[in-house]
Structure formats: structure tokens, C-alpha cells
Design a protein that fits this description.
Blueprint lengths: L10 E2 L5 E2 L13 H16 L5 H19 L2 E8 L2 E8 L11 E5 L13 H11 L2 E5 L11 H13 L8 E6 L1 H15 L7 E5 L11 H10 L30 H4 L5 E6 L5 H13 L4 E6 L13 H17 L2
Parallel strand pairs: 5-6, 5-7, 7-8, 8-9, 9-10
Antiparallel strand pairs: 1-2, 3-4, 4-6
Helix pairs in contact: 2-3, 3-9, 4-5
């Protein structure tokens, strides 16, 4: 097929690299207008605050979204400590129904292991608590630069050990997005290596479990979804993970089929413009190969953690999928 007048051909390197000439990529015609506008708003806000402290970035990006989430779902929030770890406890304001009082969801928030979005876990915990009618405990685990792997896994385990005194593992779910998605996978591996039973189900959202969250989407997703190219190979990654060998299955569970095959039913949710898409797809493939009941849901046009913005119709779709998954798997 002939190229349009003035168009440049894509260059293909012998090493498999591709050089794409300057092009204009429109928003996805298969995503809602609200979703496309939210993506652009996020990119421009993030660029305007580049180089600013993480707390300032989170306040500008996540503060308004958190307030909209609180307004959209009737949930009570209280501080607590479990196993010595600070947590936030979310419950439906109407109360927990008698058939759900013996069920529990644990949330591990995102933020690249360096921040916690103004209120740790609120944008993931509030909708899920409201839609499932269950109690959700969001764990305020230790962060970099003060902490390094496996501090967060240890904190999640401390909470998990404590709640196991009251709840059956068949009635506990664990989930998180981004760094929280990776931490969910790490925690499942950590439970195995420390003789703890697996929870009934896990949600690994906008994340995978391999070193570096690599693959095609690491480049393509960042260009289309977050507006910036990834860091050059070898220039560093998550500061929390520095020093963890790529072969360490407690750090990167996707590297071990033996670890993955012991995972509980797992939901993987991601957007097609998310830089973590390839990593999520890879994790799903490996889980399925290991015989795990793994479900992959991908939303067209969605950027990283697109469902944090409740103005976006696809956000409600995603939270409905998450809620139904846990309602189905917690017995």
C-alpha cells in the first residue's frame, strides 16, 4: 500500500528496534469522551508539575479525584493499627450485611512505593467497599527512600497474620493497583515462603510482576498514555526495588512458575494505553500456564490507573468487575 504524500516510512533496525517518524495519534474512538479528556488532563497536570515533590504532585492529581470518589460512594473511614501497621478501614455507611461480616478485603495502595495519593488507598478502597458491601482495610506500608524491599511485603504480612486470627483465608481478598499491584503479587509470594495460606482471591491491577514492567507497552504506553518516554535501560527503576535480584521470586513472582501456580484466582485489570499493559499480559499468560484461574480485563484507551477518575464511565465498569470478582470468590 502506498504511503500518503509526504509521509515517512518507519525505520526497522537489524536489532529489532523501530524508529517511528513524527505522527499525531488521536484519542481512542472506542473510549468515552470523558475518558479521553481525563487522560489529557492527567498528562498536562503531570507535565506542569514535573520535578516537584511527590506530595505536591499527588495533591494536584489525586486530591480532587479523591474528593469526587468520596462524594460518589457512601463509605465511612477510620484510622487504626493492625499488627503494628497503620491502616485505614473503609466500610459502607449503611453497615455491613450479616452475610459479609466474616469477609474482608485488604488493599495495598499505589504510588511507586514512594507516595500514597493524599489518602492511602482511598480511590481503590472506597468504591470497592461500597460496591461489595464489605470492609476494606488499606495498608499504609513503608515507603522508599526510607525503606527498601521487602519492607512493604513484611508490613502486609504483619496485617495478614493478624486478620487471620479472625477471618478464614477463604474469606479474604487482596488487591492493589500499580505499585500496589506488584506488591499484591509480592505478598502472595511472601506468604508462600513464610508458610501462610493464600487468600481466596487477588486483584493485580495496572501492573505485572516481572523485573522492570517491560515489553512493548513500556514504550508505547508511556508515549500514548503518560506522555513521556521511559527511562533508558540500566538507568534505574523503582528505588524501593533497588538491590533486589531479578531472579528473586519474592520480588518478581512472574519469574517463577512454581510460585505462580500457587496463586489464588487472580483478576488482572489494565488499560490499553497503560505502560504496564505488556507486564500485565505476561503475568496473565504465565498464571494460565501454571493452571491458575486468572482473568484479564483490558479497557480500550485507558491510561495507567484510569479508573481513579470516577467521572469516566469505564471507571465504574472496572470497579464493577473488581467487586463482582471478589463477591464470587470469597466464600
Amino acid at each position: 500500500m502506498a504511503l500518503p504524500a509526504g509521509a515517512q516510512e518507519v525505520e526497522v533496525g537489524t536489532d529489532g528496534s523501530i524508529v517511528v517518524p513524527t505522527i499525531r495519534v488521536p484519542g481512542s474512538g472506542l473510549m468515552s469522551d470523558e475518558g479521553n479528556r481525563s487522560r489529557v488532563e492527567h498528562i498536562l497536570t503531570e507535565r506542569s508539575l514535573k520535578g516537584r515533590p511527590i506530595a505536591e504532585l499527588n495533591a494536584a492529581l489525586m486530591g480532587p479525584r479523591l474528593e469526587r470518589t468520596k462524594a460518589a460512594f457512601a463509605v465511612s473511614i477510620r484510622n487504626d493499627r493492625i499488627g503494628g501497621i497503620p491502616v485505614l478501614v473503609y466500610e459502607p455507611k449503611a453497615g455491613i450485611a450479616s452475610d459479609k461480616r466474616n469477609k474482608l478485603l485488604l488493599n495495598v495502595h499505589g504510588g511507586g512505593f514512594v507516595g500514597c495519593f493524599v489518602e492511602c488507598g482511598g480511590m481503590e478502597s472506597i468504591p470497592v467497599a461500597a460496591l461489595t458491601g464489605m470492609r476494606v482495610i488499606s495498608i499504609d506500608y513503608r515507603l522508599a527512600p526510607a525503606a527498601r524491599f521487602p519492607a512493604a511485603s513484611e508490613d502486609v504480612t504483619a496485617v495478614y497474620r493478624e486478620v487471620l486470627k479472625t477471618y478464614s483465608p477463604r474469606r479474604i481478598g487482596l488487591y492493589g493497583c500499580s505499585a500496589g499491584g506488584l506488591l499484591t503479587a509480592q505478598s502472595l509470594a511472601w506468604f508462600q515462603s513464610h508458610g501462610l495460606p493464600a487468600p481466596a482471591a487477588a486483584g493485580i491491577l495496572c501492573a505485572g510482576a516481572d523485573p522492570g514492567m517491560g515489553g512493548d507497552s513500556r514504550t508505547i504506553g508511556m508515549i500514548l498514555g503518560d506522555g513521556e518516554l521511559p527511562a533508558a535501560p540500566g538507568s534505574g527503576g523503582l528505588s524501593y526495588m533497588r538491590g533486589a535480584p531479578p531472579s528473586n521470586s519474592n520480588a518478581f513472582p512472574a519469574t517463577s512458575v512454581d510460585v505462580l501456580r500457587k496463586f489464588p484466582p487472580t483478576l488482572i485489570a489494565v488499560g490499553t494505553r497503560d505502560f504496564a499493559l505488556s507486564s500485565a499480559v505476561n503475568l496473565h499468560s504465565r498464571l494460565v500456564s501454571g493452571g491458575v484461574d486468572a482473568r484479564l480485563h483490558a479497557w480500550e484507551g485507558g491510561r495507567h490507573a484510569f479508573f481513579y477518575d470516577v467521572r469516566v464511565p469505564e471507571s465504574r465498569e472496572a470497579f464493577d468487575v473488581i467487586a463482582k470478582f471478589f463477591l464470587r470468590n470469597l466464600k
